[in-house]
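User: Structure with thiamine diphosphate, tokens only please.
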Amino acid sequence: MRMSGAKALVESLEKERVEVIFGLPGGAIMPVYDVLLDSKVRHILVRHEQSAAHMADGYARASRKTGVCMATSGPGATNLITGIATAHLDSSPIVAITGQVSTSQIGLDAFQEADMIGIASPVTKYSFQPRRVEDIPVTVKKAFHIASTGRPGPVLIDLPKDIQMDSAEVEFPMKVEVRGYRTDYKPDPEKIGLAAEILANSERPLILAGGGVILSDASEELQKVAETILAPVATSLMGKGSIPEDHPLSIGIIGMHGSKEANRLIYEADTLLAVGCRFSDRTTGKLDEFCPASKVIHIDIDPAEIGKNRCVDLAIISDAKMALEALYRALTKTLTEKKDTAWSRKLKEMKETNNVKTENSGRDLTPPKILKELRRVLPPEAIVTTEVGQNQMWASLYFKVLKPRTFITSGGFGCMGYGFPASIGAKTAIPNVPVVDVAGDGSFMMTENSLATSVTENIPVTVIILNNRMLGMVAQWQRLFYNRRYSAVSLGDVPDFQKLAEAYGAEGLRIGSVEEFSRAVKESLKSEVTTVIDVPIDPEENVLPMVPAGYSLKDVIG
Amino acid sequence: MPKTFIISALVEHKPGVLYKVSNMFWRRGFNIESVAIGTAEQEDLARMTITIKGEEKDAEQLVSQLEKLIDVLKAARLDPQKAVIRELALIKLNASDPKIRSDIFHYVEVFRGRIVDVSPTSAIVEIVGSKDKIDAFINLTRDFGLMEVARTGETALIRGPESVRIDV
Ligand SMILES: Cc1ncc(C[n+]2csc(CCOP(=O)(O)OP(=O)(O)O)c2C)c(N)n1
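Assistant:
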């Protein structure tokens, strides 16, 4: 069939069953936008390209489909980069399409030219720049294949304008093969046997579940393994939700702002089963002193993760779901059912005493109370996104996640401004569940213009601003480690978020107590427009417990 | 203690690949000693021989990171004991003095090099061999008024039937 490059691109996207593209046009991508007018694919216009990438990312994490974002060349394309980098560090499958200047102008510093392959390479899984119309269908197919398989990640397609306008005979492949790309990692049965033996014989096993468990939909298998060996399950921030956090074996997240249980128990464990996690510094604290007394078994689909940060005793390169399934089968063969062990009794005691302690703190409107109340009013399948900073850490400590893919946060990149657009992306993917962004005032101001998109495109979400009039997390560090010398962290009392929301046509509410908060959230879930709930909190509030950067996990403050 | 190790990588022979490979090394903090690249046994592939200085524990990680790049089809560490390793150097020397001129001829013979160009005042020597041998020759000729050196960096293949290749 003879068609233009732009048409070939859009048809290829349709064949990948793309339902929605988040983007913003410009000169170098106009031919594609022109074709989009006649396509079934929905386009959602953003107000800043960074948000387009975050929306595609939130869409992907909530739905396990690949998200798509689009921008023009040069500034449009570079605005995507922060969002692409965010998806890269959290292994989120997105395909980013950018216009490029015409091939005859590439390299001449033409108007709105940027070397996107060069800029994007370090933050993408792969990047393409098709130079012939005929190559477009294959490129798109490869891009979706690479983005969504193995360890997922962002892929860029940078498309010169003349290639969008030229015509040629094109064919749409059913399947593609990418030389040099492997995804067929299956667990080695011998190593599974060995792992089962080590785990069955350990007295104090502990499981550390990372984002890989969620990406490979391995939560059920994880839970079965944990229950068989009675191992407490800690998660990384990215792994939050891989086990229901009300499960008796769940001990919450580990690391800098981890739970006391998780950070303490890891020191006593004699075997650590780490699944789909990359031992990031925020998770391990000082690496030399991380689980010093235990054997480490590491399951990961990315061979380059093995030994990157933590040396391991046994590595299983495999999809997490397949490995955990095999491990469960191997365990049930050798292990007669474990009843109570000294280790599991210890865990129980620890959880009981801690529960009593956290219940009463004097003030009414504290972040822990707000987040616990939020859990109470939201259904289990509701999706919560977060911004970055104290709000994110309070959410991870106090909001118990009950299902995988319902907690969406920028873990690896720690990108302020992520949560709100990501919540819009998630709501686009799963329109029938409530979606709530837990925000800080600083973060929200980075992408608040997405209110326009949310309102005009009818994608209602709820934003809860834990408003401390501060860049709170930085203020906390200055309070604790810089002798209260506050530098550039006060945001003042502006803007008035209630009015700001109203200016965009959204609803704005300000609340003064937990009851009002509760009512406001419930109302917002029924509302047909986005609701911004301003929750004034004490700017002196710290996120505790915490482990200072570079210290070992047992050096907990608070 | 940092060690030198040699990696042989088969990569796609197309624009941008060298950038992606070198960028990976830079980003992960590995220091490249030398890279030699040229077309491999299949026309659309290139072979890169990369010499790295690093800790022993880094070697495996480095190969994994390389193989993770989609444009890298295969990568492996070469055991220097089981590999043929060569480098080519072109060395231009100042040869205006007749005494020095004859010394140069003598040394070139000892090092099994070749004189590939002469002018009334200069000579270009070609030497193929191990990195050490070329270093030694360069050090020796420094006093003669060494003018210019161009080295290819080490290139290598495993001895015997074993190899780093893909079937088509
Ligand atoms: C884009 C970006 N810029 C800067 C930072 C550094 N940073 C981390 S947390 C934080 C403060 C966040 O403030 P706010 O969004 O108000 O949340 P709070 O900590 O008060 O809950 C900053 C500036 C970042 N993570 N991302």
